[in-house]
Each structure stands twice: as C-alpha cells, then as structure tokens.
What we know:
mainly alpha
Amino acid sequence: LDSHRSPAEAPPPSRSPRPPSPPPRSARERPACVSMATLEARITALEDDVSTMQADYNESLDTIWMLLAAMLVFFMHSGFSMLEAGCVRHKNTQNILAKNLIVVTVGFLCWYIIGFPIALGSPEEPNKFAGGNHFAMDGFWDNKSKFREWLFQGAFCATGGTIVSGAMAERTQLKGFITYTVLLTSIIYPVVIWWGWSGGGIFNYTNDNGESESIVKGAPLQDFAGSGLVHLVGGIGALCGAVI
C-alpha cells in the first residue's frame, strides 16, 4: 500500500542535526597575553636558579676534593707508624705507636681549640704575627666551608708533629712528647702558618700599594702544596729535640 502512496503523502526526508552554534566571543578562552616585564622577570629568576645550582655544584666538588686530600694526608700517619715501628727495638714498639696516636688525638684537640684560630682565623684588627678568630669553631656555621678547611689544615698540622716522633724515637719519654705535641699544634705551627699562608703574615702580606711582599721587602713566600712550612716546622722541631 505504501508503494501506491501519493507524493503528497510521502514522509519528509530526514535532515542531519544542525551543529550547535559556537559560544559568543566573550565566553571563549582567549590566549593569555604576557607582558615584556613578566618575561624579563621570569628570565632573571631562571638565571638566578642556574647560578645557584652552579655555585652549589662547585661547592660540592671543592668539598669532595678537600675531604679526599685530607683523608690521604691523614692516612699518612699509618705509614709513619709502620715505618717508625720498624726502625725501633721491639720493646719500644708500643711507645712509638702511642706517640703517633697522641699526635692525631691530642694534636687535633689543640688544633680545634686554639691552633686553627691562630693559624687561619682573621681577627678584627689584623696583624702580621698571628690570627685570633674562630676559637673552638666559633662562627663556622655562618660559613660552612670552614669545616673542610679546618679538617684539611688539621691533617697537615698533625703531620708536622709526626715528623718529630720519628726523629726522637727512643730518645724521649712519653710525657715529654705530649708536652711537645701540645705546644707545637697549639702555638708553634699555627703561628708559622699565619706568617706564610694567611695572606697577612710576615712572609706574605699586602703593602700600602696593594702589592704582596715579605718582611724582607722582597717577593712574598710561594709555598708549593704546603711542603715548605710543614716540613720547616717539623724538621726544626725534630732537630731541636734530637739535639736536646
């Protein structure tokens, strides 16, 4: 019957639904406009972050290197102990080992309390004879790089004391060596270090013209790797002890 339906009675053709009309422009999400000042502020903040990261990286490398160097110098005491134990008679082995142990214990305590402040503690009123700041690590938390410097320089201080223990092996009593160690690590060695390494001592200081010179009005001391002052103090101390 449908086939005989007249055209007027035929169903209207189906139409696809009309897509929804877009929202008005005011309701659309517009792209954010960033001003030039904002971009410059972001770039400046990024540069500051990169600079901070670079400084932290360099600080970490410096700390690792100084700790490694300090451990190598500190480990030399085991070699000193074996060398000196092999050079003395069997009955004096414990005595010489005890002296090496005293250097790295009592010596470091003296370096902690008064040695480092005299050697590298810049006072408020600098002088050419000795330092006088950071007693017992006072103020180290304000500049944490002082911790690594303290350990590194303390290892050299103890090394200067160990030189004498070998030169005076079987020649001095234990109490005499303890007295010597206290004096060397507290006063003698630190004062000499201030003279040469502080940049304001008699061997190397800055004159009124901004030039580095020594007390003899000549070129300032250039101590390569610290070999000069460490062995100077230790060698003279050992000579005096052996002569006495």
